Amino acid sequence: MLLNSKIFGTGNKTLVVLHGFLGMLDNWKTFAKKMVGNNYKIHLLDQRNHGKSFHNNEFNYKIMAEDLHHYITYHNIKKFSLIGHSMGGKTAMMFSSLFPESIDKMIVVDILPIYYKNNYSTILNSLKSLDLEKLKTRSEIDKALENDFKEPSFRSFLLKNLHRIDKDKLGFKIDLDIILDNLSEVEKSLPNKLFYDGKVLFVKGEKSNYINDSNINLLINQFPKYKIVEIQNAGHWVHAENLNDFIRETLLFLES
After folding, report:
1. What is the CA radius of gyration of the chain?
2. Per-residue DSSP letters for the chain?
3. Which residues neighbour 58 within 8 Å (Cβ) at sequence distance 6 or greater?
4. pLDDT score of 213
């Protein structure tokens, strides 16, 4: 099956973007609209079990990399640059190791190929606990999530996963059960034998601890041509929190 996508621009340079955990291509629309003036054709993708893409019980980075390969084969994309954020960054790194000939340059946003223990299970269980038979509006669901998630912007991010099943009922685009069942696959490190000899930019958010001095040294063995930049005034959602600086660093790297 083919991943859902939205394509922006008609330039002769192809850029593919992979969103993060519980995200979707919509999270990157503003970025894409700002980038198209630089002669790019930008493919925003929904990864499996996310957004409007298909649901499948198999959910790991190898199969998600193969989903991307199927997508570029279908669209006859021979060579492209790739951006992946968080979970999408791990998919991108896996893809680069499996299909290195397809990539021109790669940008990995605020993630490394290592194990991360997150609060993902708490988030998913909170979403599963919502009684969508009683909660009929987004504002009601937002209110129900307030106790678990104090930050309005994060609740807004989660609420993007809702869609209307019929005129009186909301449901989730994501498959909560499949993602919960495979959560260890999302958190786990990528294989130690992972290797990509092309150019890679790792983008770190200044306020994020996903990339730090204690874990970045491992990159030299797996991505010997890597470089790293830090985006000021941004946390883990770098592209949302400081879009202008992120675009500047993206273009500097892709055009160099």
Report:
1. 18
2. -PPPEEEE---SEEEEEE--TT--GGGGHHHHHHHGGGTEEEEEEPPTTSTTSPP-S--SHHHHHHHHHHHHHHTT--SEEEEEETHHHHHHHHHHHH-GGGEEEEEEES--SS----SHHHHHHHHHT--TTT--SHHHHHHHHTTT---HHHHHHHHTTEEEEETTEEEESS-HHHHHHTHHHHHSPPPTT----SEEEEEEETT--SS-TTTGGGHHHH-TTEEEEEETT--S-HHHHSHHHHHHHHHHHHH-
3. none
4. 82
pLDDT digits (tens, 9 = 90+) for 140-196: 999 999 989 999 999 999 999 999 988 889 999 999 999 999 999 999 999 999 999
Residue 235, both tokens: 């946390």
Delineate the domains of the chain, giving CATH numbers in brackets. 5-114+189-255 (3.40.50.1820), 120-180 (no CATH)
Asked if pLDDT for residue 92 goes beyond 90, the answer is yes
Extract the tokens encoding 83.
Answer: 């951006």
The confidence score (pLDDT) of residue 207 equals 96
Q: Which tens digit of pLDDT belongs to each residue from 51-61?
A: 999 999 999 99
CA separation, residue 235 to residues 111, 118, 145, 168 (Å): 12, 15, 22, 37
Question: Residue 247: pLDDT above 90?
Answer: yes
pTM: 0.95
User: pLDDT exceeding 90 applies to what percent of the chain?
Assistant: 91
Counting Cβ atoms within 10 Å, is residue 166 exposed (0-12), middle (13-18) or buried (19+)? Answer: exposed
